[in-house]
Queue: 4 jobs
Job 1
Amino acid sequence: MAGTTQESFMPTTEIASPRAAESKAALSQRRHRLAVGWAVVQDLHDCGEAMGIWKADFTATIGTGLSPWQPIPRLEHLQRLLSEQPWYGRQLHAINEHAWWYRLLFTLPAGFGPSLRLRFDGVDQYATVWLNGVELGRHEGYADGFSFAIDDTVRRDAENVLVVRVDAPWDREVDPAEPMNRVGAIIRNQIKGTYEHADTFVQRDVNPIGIHAPVWLDCHQGVSTCSGPRLQASTPAPGMPARVTARWDVDAVEAVAGAVIAMDIIDLETGRRVDASEMPVRIPAGASTIVVGGAIPAPKRWSTWDRGTPSLYRARLTLRVAGEDWLVEERTFGIRDVELVRDERRTELVMDGQRVFLRATTYFPDIYVSAMDRGRWRRDLEAMVAYGFNAVRVHVHQQPDGFYDECDRLGLLVLQDSDLNWRFPADDPAFVARAETLFGRMIRRLGNHPSIFAWVCMNETLRTEPYLALGRRLAALARAEDPTRSTIVNSWQPEDPASGDSHRYAGALDGGRYTDMADRTYKLLSEFGVDAPATPSALRAAPGIAERVESLAPHIAGLHDYQYRLIKFHIERLRIAKWNPCGGYFHFMWIDLCPQSFYGVYDHWGRPKAEGLGGGLRAFDEGNRPIAVVLEHLDRPKALWVVNDLARDLGTCRVEWTATTGDGEVVAEGARDLDVAADACIRVCDLEFTVDPEQTYGVVLQLRDAHGAVIAKNSYVDAFTIPERLPGYPARMDHELGMRLWNA
């Protein structure tokens, strides 16, 4: 295979610095992307290390069982590169049966120095890296980057051989106590949520593997970044300055005396520099942490879009030696105080001293994180805001950094899960150590984002001592790494104040009717919803799935209607229980993560499941906005409510209502004035009339402000009919296609 040349590298980019134009040293602070010339081979006999594939002079011979190196056009998950259809099918299973080896030959551009660091932005899941036959190190985890100093191993005047072994093995251990239930029985030794869940959430044969993000050569003057600056901003009383502390992990080739660390803080709304600080620092040889502080005299607070402005700042840190800028890093941050306040009765988010009712959905947009980009995140997140959401839960996985940048910008709160889900070897000390390492790295990677308000340590695990003990350890680790946020130790334990949230699928997984949820109270309902297939036209993009559910075509509009009614009933019931005791909800989920029939209100291709009455999106349009007017009902009307989640008083408003039969006869109408305070939940009045079971009824509600403008509206079609699910609820699974079956 031909090696890369200087022309194969991406163009050099100087790191931005206020003094870059006048700093000769800054000219050598460059990055080169190793993007072209990669090749792979699968180690079918699992003997690559013993054979020495990692050696610079390795040559395959007869008897090794290795295929020739296969060139690949780019770095992304191997399933997306090697399979025409990466979403389902037994042909994918073999991709993970054995490890893969990557190889790249490259030469350095002339004058590229004086010191170098090799940086990987993402490898899924286990990686071992060699350069010119020298092992640089190992890494576990798909979500965070890692790097190595390579001054002692790189060849400056000859070709370099970079080799990476990548593995993402299948978990094969099953708990013998539950041999017939793989969902509960399979022991998940990989600490990642982005692979098969054995319930068709992620299809049985999908387990993403590979170098899926860019690889870089970073050139520096002798001090390099190990991990980017971690910022912590104090939350002062009104009128007081905010203190900002940055911790920056660096690695020095040798000790550096006479250095200066400077921090400039920029208000991103105005572009103004609001603080500049500088202090001398001595950097020892090897790894160390630089700490620098600053202050913002009149800090703006970061808030959700519906309650204020998501104000952001950017800190620019510069390491200067002898007047030259050696290293520059920038990080965006916000200032706010957040806490989950929990006891036996409540689970409430308090931000800057005010309770915030969470109107939220769940996000797992693609099983392959390499498929995501700014365009897809913006499409999804801006739609969430348009439909009234102020928060999102990243479910049992981690997104790349750009996702959280978008949430920061839009003013969307984030509940961030770890990758620990269901059953795993919590009684294994080695596993516990790995779990702590990966959980800590997640917090350090994402901790700068003001949008994140809490960390979820584990999701739906067993409530036995090994799991409880691990949950306590992870919560303690989170407090040590990030004392500014709360944790949910094990999501779905409402009775535990350390968790405080519920999962309930009334009318869906839990059976019964969706109105059954009204029989219970919820402090924070963090999972509810129902699955629905994509539209017939969308399903044609996945022929295998379209054929499997062909018999559903006449029923799809009805299934979308059922999703609409279930979601609407849930969110409206939870909203009128605001603070009594409900602190919010997280609908499950926004978009299907692969072609399948699942819980998204959008299908995998980003098209709404909106046949018939309009699907789940109509439910959000009517009941999920910050200001809502709601009919409390079961099989007959009961009362009218107004909910205001804004932090401002609406003044005197007027509620108007009209109820008609299917024949157009008006059976109830009226209007009432009321004062709507900030953050209010008001029972306006009783609304009762006789319901004829042979009739259908429609109800239209409006809320007008003091000027007569409509600020909320709602409608109910066939309001008092509570449908059952379509016969053939998907207790059966098609594991070949990775989907739940209705009556297909």
Job 2
Amino acid sequence: MSTREQMSIVIVGHVDHGKSTVVGRLFADTGSLPDGKLAAVRAECERTGKVFEYAFLLDALTDEQDQGITIDTARCFFKTQRRDYVIIDAPGHIEFLKNMISGAARAEAAVLVIDAKEGVRENSRRHGWLLGMLGVRQVVVCVNKMDLADWREDRFASIEKEYREFLAGIGAPPPVRFIPIAALHGANLATKGSEMPWYTGPTLLETLDGFTKSPAAQHRPLRLPVQAVYKFTDGGDDRRIVAGRIESGSVTVGDEVVFSPSNKRARIRSIESFNTTERTRVCAGHSTGFTLDTEIFVTRGEIMSRVDSAPQVGTRLRANLVWLGRKPMETSRDYKIKLHTAALPVRIHRLISVRDASTLDPGAGADRIGRHEVADVELETRQPVAFDLAEQDQATGRFVIVDGFDIAGGGIITATVADDQEGFRLESRLRDFRWISGGVSPSERRALFHHAPALVLFTGKHGVGKHRYARALEQALFRARIATYLLDGANLLLGVGNDLAAESARHELVRRFGEIAHLLTDAGLVVVSTSNAIGLSDHASVRTLLGDRPLLTIDIDPAGTATSDCDLRLRGDESELTVVTRITGLLRDRGVIGLNDTTHTDL
């Protein structure tokens, strides 16, 4: 097994500026081609009457050779004395921008090629912006085809000056170096070109070898986005296996881990894999499964990590985003964000800036992002999601945006943005991380009660019937042998909130309410609550403190004018039986009751 260092490099630039020729020449000059490959390509060119080009060494697809453009991202390898390179030749044509982004997303460094005769073009600028946006910090700019510019130093200097000023204008990191090259002649690629004695800097290969390798994935904090959870029941097998790919870090049997955003903790009981020897440790790059010492319920899209290095959690993300959809991305519409294994609704919370990446002109408008435009934007997800900043972990810090069934955009997370629940979320996370569990597990409570915990929260103005419906629901649940409790807001004010004035300390009242609901649901109860102090505007805060336990919001609005989200909206003139029937139906749909068909037959 090779122990040589490996680095991924992406090659970008405007169409016909010579990217594939640069790559082909690097393969030839470093002796990285298979035996006879160069001669075979030369012979094929003679047979077909084509002028030999080094680009033919890379362009393997027939369509590419016929059209003379690169239409996919090709992964090839070459070697220097220092390391092995995985070189990604990305498309230069504007119509293949998606492929360029997918290539750059895997790269640790980049080579951007500019034609010395044509100069800085549209995609030269656009690719420079995208590299900065995608977090690629090690970039070398090769000014190619210097032979067509008569090897002139002033031509090279003018292109360098123009491009540096462009990058500075968009706030992109400056390139590590500009190098004048002639890929067809091999000048300044692997060896110095005698045609340009005025250039005294390193060659392209020397520059690449000077780039810093990213830390090995296994030495970074543990990140395993959950892909699936499998439950086995055949033959007495009762394993619940959490499966996914370890993007970074490593994990050993016995390690304590936490899942975000649910904050659930457990220890690794075993490492599971199909048709392999038993393992006690697994590292980054492996797809595997785990069983845990505690039966916790986690879902696809959560991230497994260590407690002391957990990812960030929030509903608002600041991001650099490029839009490729044919329809503009609009602030008034919902989309889907795919971030590691999570997929959830998202919309634009705030557009900070939008520009055309090639011209620096302002974008399509104040409320939309047009095709091929890039934006500094705040996105808001419908529920909390776990993530990292892209500069810390690319696998959990890069995302795509789906419009309908098409991938229409993508970008990187640059910062987390505090939302209205940030304080409550921090409190609940610290609480859950330090929570001391009792001797009875949640699954044992479910088995005894035949139902899961939940909170049913009635909201609405004074006198609309909240208390009447809440009492009827509690009585019906109790008669059906469901462990339930009515948490009345008035009792909250008389007890743990007697030192508070509801109007002057609403935030603290909501916090105390949420923590009491958390305690009661931790005991396995279905909590029914009504309060004039806790309304629809507070239900997101209560949900944050409650964690992943189901919360049903029942809003009573006789006027029929309310528009806020809720699970069920009533007029207040419905019969108690009708309301109880509709709410218990929702509880069944959420998997709270009906865990055993022989129980709760009264509902």
Job 3
Amino acid sequence: MQTKLSENKLEMNHAIEQAKKQREISISEFFTKNRHLLGFDSPLKAISTTVKESVDNSLDACEESNILPNIEVEIKQTTQERFQVTIEDNGPGIVKEQIPKIFGKLLYGSKFHTLMQGRGQQGIGVSASVLYGQLTTGKPAKITSKISKNKPAYYCELHFDTQKNEPEITRAEEVEWNKEHGTKIIIEMEGKYQRGKRSVSEYIKYTAVSNPHAKLTLIEPDGTTIVYPRATNHPPAKSKEIKPHPDGIELGILINMLKNTKSRTLQAFLTTDFSRIGAGTAKKICAEANINTNARPTRIAKQEADNLLQTIRKTKFVSPQTDCLSPIGEDLLKRSLKKEFDAEFFVTVTRPAAVYRGNPFIIEAGLAYGGSLNRETNAELIRFANKVPLQYQQSACSISKSVTRTKWKQYGLHQSNGNLPTGPLVIAVHMASVWVPFTSESKESIAHYPEIIKEIKLAVQECGRQLGKYVRKQGKVKDEAKKRSYLEKYVPVIGEALKEILALKDKDEKIINENLKDYLERSRKL
């Protein structure tokens, strides 16, 4: 008996000791130990991720203020393993009260709770770059911001308190900056710089393709300056915030919406908290779900919510609004591809809007073929999500899955099973959505939703059909040219042989030669 009491007491002591060790984990502490989740898993990728997150923020800020972006990226090598990354834009600037939270607090942003297209979604990107710089060099981020030409710029140096997930301003002052408005951030970090695949220079080039309204400048560590001029002087249409579309809505999301709605009746909830549900459709849904239209949404039981969901799923709705999206557009995507790639054939397609999990999205695709593109390697696949290039985790992305599963042989290209086609081809695919379902926090690949894969395949196949026509036409032209070359080579020999066999006079020979020349000329025109 005494032994059993001792054992119980020992177990209780263990539980008490375990309880003492339990404490809340700061989001900053979590990502300090798991920075690979944010895209900082190698020195090479660290610089690329920092540039990507900062440039994305600059492009978003400029578009929201209807400003044509001028963005300069400069990378300087300070030691063998350290680099200073500077990103400067001509955006609206940031008010000084918001600077610490934007750059020094993870999971802080304005787009997470809104349904409208934007590059940033999670409120992690640029603040994670500041955190990585501090972890690897111990140096603060240096931020300069100016919101008006009539006011001085605000400069600050910022540290990250990882235990509290809070910023620390170590220096702040007003400074002169020869710029009307804009933001500049300088982060020093450990890294590695190189050109080629998945590099900063590749990211900037691809960003120029998906953002034809932007002027981008890259200054590399050796002083090389690369300028990507804008392809249009018209900024893209602003996307507008919308309500969720009922197609694809899930039970958990519906229950949360019912709990948090400000609507007093179920009918009002359906018409105001969703898009594309009118009063008549709302009444029909309530009747089929056997729920009173005047029922309080916050008092809807779980089973009633499930009945409501099943009725919604059986109902056909009008396609979602597209003013919440800002696709590149067929014409601009084609102009961008022509600007960046020396090819001989271009085709682009923009699909109608579709829905996954209640979120509207649009798929765009473009092909560049021939010219000086490499004919011996696999096609180059460029993936975009909300106009942002996705450089890593290609094999895990639904875009890659859709493209490799397309039967390119029927379009006149060589392809091994499960691979990209071989030949002088660039394939660009863009997903524009109010919420892109990334597979990880680093935002490098798109999840495999059937609705998304279907739309990608349809867009790529539509481009492929146009390419197939061109490839077959080019093959026919080459065959005809080959046949003509045979005629041009052997007809004079045949003429000489006929002259000898038939003992033709010079006059007859002249007539035969003229007829042969006429035949060759007509064959060229054909």
Job 4
Amino acid sequence: MQNFLRLLRFLKPYRWHLLGAGILTLVVLAGELLTPAALRWTIDRGLEQRRMDLVFLYSLLLIGLFGVRSVAAFFQGYLQNLAGQRMVRDLRHQLYERLQYLPISFYRSMPTGQIMSRVTSDVEAVQEFVAWGLLFLIAASASFVGTLIILLLINWRLSLAVVSPIIPLAMVVYLFDRRIGPAWEQVREQMGKLTTVLQEAISGVRVVKAFAREHFEIRRFGAQNETYRAKNIYRARVEARAFPSMDLFIGLCFVLLTLYGGHLIMRGEVTLGTFFAYQWYLWGVIWPVRMMGWLLSIMRQALAAIPRILEILDAPITIADAPDAIPLPQVRGEIRFEDVWFAFPDEPDRMVLKGLNLVIEPGQTVAILGGTGSGKSSVINLIPRFQDVVRGRVLIDGHDVRQVRLADLRRHIGIVPQETFLFSATVRENIAFGRPDASQEEIERVARLAQAHDFIMELPQGYDTRVGERGIGLSGGQKQRIALARALLMDPAILILDEAMSSVDTETEYEIQKALEQVMATRTSVVIAQRLSTIKTADKVVVLKDGRVIEEGTHAELLARGGEYTRLYNLQFRLQEEGLTEREQVTAG
């Protein structure tokens, strides 16, 4: 309940809407309580006394009551939904904003499908209850209490008789509430799992097709879909057992009214008008109890969704500007790692980097090598502060990256990741993502540097061609070249290439390498390389093993030492060296 009250704080900006809706709810309730009384007067004072003028008068009163109720109900519903919709808009926006600032480590433990489920279906569950269910619940409670008081004042003996089945009806509602809550929690959790499978299958469609695993993915989705169906069937079974039982006790109320009420009419203790008014009033007691099960079901859905929503809102933003963060207007490009220790937040005991020390001079091109798990990716992720060190410091031009503004830091760093991501937008928009105000000339210049201009011009609409979700309409090499152009457009002082040319062919790599030589000559470049051509042209090669720098120097120096670099060279690069030599001989010939 504390979580629910916390979420209701989102309604605070719209409290006047809710106040207006609450006042109108009271007007509707007053109309509901006066309508049976007007009917009673019509029968007892008009029909029994055979006075048509009174029948006409009370009929006009009934019409007026219906009109006031209808108008009040319209504006009450409008204001209530307006407040609820705006509250949910704010909530969804805050969730999305939070997701933008959460660190990358958050996404290691939270599948994309779960995030999507929480931002969509879970928020909709909260919306359904807040938009109208909350005031409806309050109105139902007020209707029950108000109607019961009026019934007891009219004839307490008849009232106690006809409402006696409401006690077992309330027990059914209570037992229903106990079961429907956990049932909805399981349904929501399973929806997150189903969405995760769907998202992964769509995002990885090329891998699925490449390995001919369509049938496997269909079976995997089918299994989760079947589990979702089973949990929904259980939830429906709980509702199916409860609602008919509720209808049974509701029917008993009217049976008792007919028997005992008819008896009292024959004895002259109750008028015919009172009897008919009781039928109307009785619904004012029954429908709140009857609807309470459904309202509780909606409330339970919201209560099951709220912790899942708050898990995102409460996730700590561990990578943020320090209170005393300083601007970083000019960057020469010096990078220093001083006794750096690093572990992922979800694996704090497994150190990926262990006392790493490294100096990269301004304008230097450094190639980083190492086996799987050596810490290469962690090194480049610490420079733009995608992660924070456990101990030690990462310095840019002598400034600890944790003490400078994130926006300034990342504006001076251009990154081409190993796994290229493109948005479902045009080629132009993807290249200009970091600089939306860039001119067409600037975009084309960096596209030429990345050897992307020619293939872009061959696309149906050139730079205005939409690339499809995640760039599915392009090859891996084409996507990498667009990503490279995107990074170059930022004109960064520090350029990070994470195996940025792993998907391009040798000829394209050669052309890109030639173009990059002039670009990298004026900026610091950190490269995780798989190609020998990149390593041979680097000013320094750094070899990592078990989270430490074990060798550094030029390609020739390290090869002469016969250490770890020589071992990696013999395993990965000797065949490339022979291929390059043959190509140079063919070119020379």
